[in-house]
Write a structure and sequence with these properties.
mainly alpha; elongated; 16 helices; 68% helix; 2 strands; two-stranded antiparallel sheet; 373 residues
């Protein structure tokens, strides 16, 4: 048996010219065929020694996803504390050291999807920044406002009963009661509960089932839309959203992951506007700045959501979520574009305004996709 094994090894070495390469002893690259004289192929970069083990397989997964060989640990500290230096160094050619902006962006999106799939909707266990603003959670706030509306409805109905029939005050009270009941229905819909006054609908031209009521007032507004295919699809989507708000919320979440990349082209013109007048910078530089900034904000949001899920006080992650993004944008803007402190402070105020506009446009697009999709 020993002789047979020895003969097989000798035969393999003679017949397979790549056998020395597989053992890391030199030869031709197994990938492109070029002559290898060091540990890596000079043409394609493949390592000289290749592995065929389960341990190597898991190593490839970790390396491919997280760049555990060092890029991640060189990139994240700079991204967190010196984002402007990271942006400038990457733009000016130091790219092998750091994770590319798009790779980091995709990593943050996939991480967000994985984390929120595990912990559910973020910040539901927290008091919705109640420790910072003094307000309660969203369901508690809706319940308080709903009770206030009920008290106003009862008071208005009591006052209406005391008015003589046909008086102007009675007509005004009826309109007020109708508006209050519609507001109460809206509050119920926000918490996915049944409407307490289904006969008045939501005040948007729909009935209790979410179907558009063709009254004399709103028929003129809708009939033009119904004559086009887009209008009919839009009205059908609005009706479906009224009937099943939870489905619309699910579509918003799903589209948020799929179309997160839209934040980059949406934000890019606004970054250019915020830095207008600074010469020597191109749209590529703005794209690197934008992508690194969005990646950091995503990772910060994920970290705060994890802290909230673990029961950490809102005073810890709440302030980080509210204050640190502004500080981070200031530092990245100042050092990436080599600005003075006063100039960076002025420009960051414009950048914050543009950020709100960009996020609003992004959510409008998601809402449109959710309704029309």
């Amino acid at each position: 048996m020993g002789t047979a094994v020895e003969g097989g090894l000798i035969a393999k070495a003679l017949e397979d010219e790549r056998f020395p390469m597989a053992q890391g002893k030199g030869g031709n690259c197994l990938n492109c065929g070029a002559v290898v004289t060091s540990s890596y192929c000079a043409d394609c970069g493949q390592p000289l020694h290749v592995h065929r083990s389960i341990a190597a397989f898991w190593h490839d997964i970790l390396h491919g996803v997280l760049h555990f060989e060092g890029k991640l640990w060189r990139t994240l500290p700079l991204l967190m504390w010196k984002p402007g230096h990271l942006t400038r160094r990457y733009i000016h050619g130091e790219r092998a050291k750091f994770i590319s902006p798009m790779a980091l962006f995709l990593f943050s999106v996939f991480t967000m999807f994985a984390v929120f799939s595990f912990i559910g909707t973020p910040f539901t266990g927290a008091s919705d920044l109640g420790g910072l603003s003094g307000a309660g959670s969203f369901p508690e706030t809706v319940a308080i406002e709903s009770n206030e509306l009920e008290e106003k409805i009862q008071a208005a109905e009591t006052e209406l009963a005391a008015q003589p029939e046909g008086s102007p005050a009675a007509a005004t009270l009826r309109e007020n009661i109708l508006d209050l009941k519609r507001g109460r229905n809206v509050m119920a819909s926000m918490t996915l509960n049944e409407m307490p006054y289904p006969e008045v609908g939501l005040g948007d031209g729909s009935d209790a089932s979410g179907n558009i009521i063709q009254t004399d007032d709103n028929f003129q507004n809708w009939k033009g839309w119904e004559q086009s295919a887009f209008g009919r699809k839009l009205l059908a989507g609005i009706n479906q959203a009224n009937k099943d708000p939870s489905l619309l919320i699910y579509k918003l979440k799903a589209n948020g992951y799929k179309f997160a990349w839209l934040l980059i082209p949406i934000s890019l013109p606004f970054v250019w506007l915020a830095t207008i007048g600074r010469r020597g910078y191109h749209f590529y530089d703005h794209a690197v700045f934008t992508t690194y900034s969005i990646s950091f904000m995503s990772l910060l949001f994920i970290s705060c959501a994890i802290l909230a899920a673990l029961g950490v006080s809102v005073a810890v992650w709440g302030w980080a979520l509210l204050i640190y993004p502004i500080f981070h944008m200031y530092r990245q803007l100042r050092h990436a574009y080599q600005m003075s402190r006063p100039e960076a402070l002025i420009r960051v105020t414009f950048l914050l305004t543009f950020t709100v506009i960009s996020l609003t446009l992004f959510f409008v697009i998601l809402l449109a996709l959710g309704i029309l999709g």
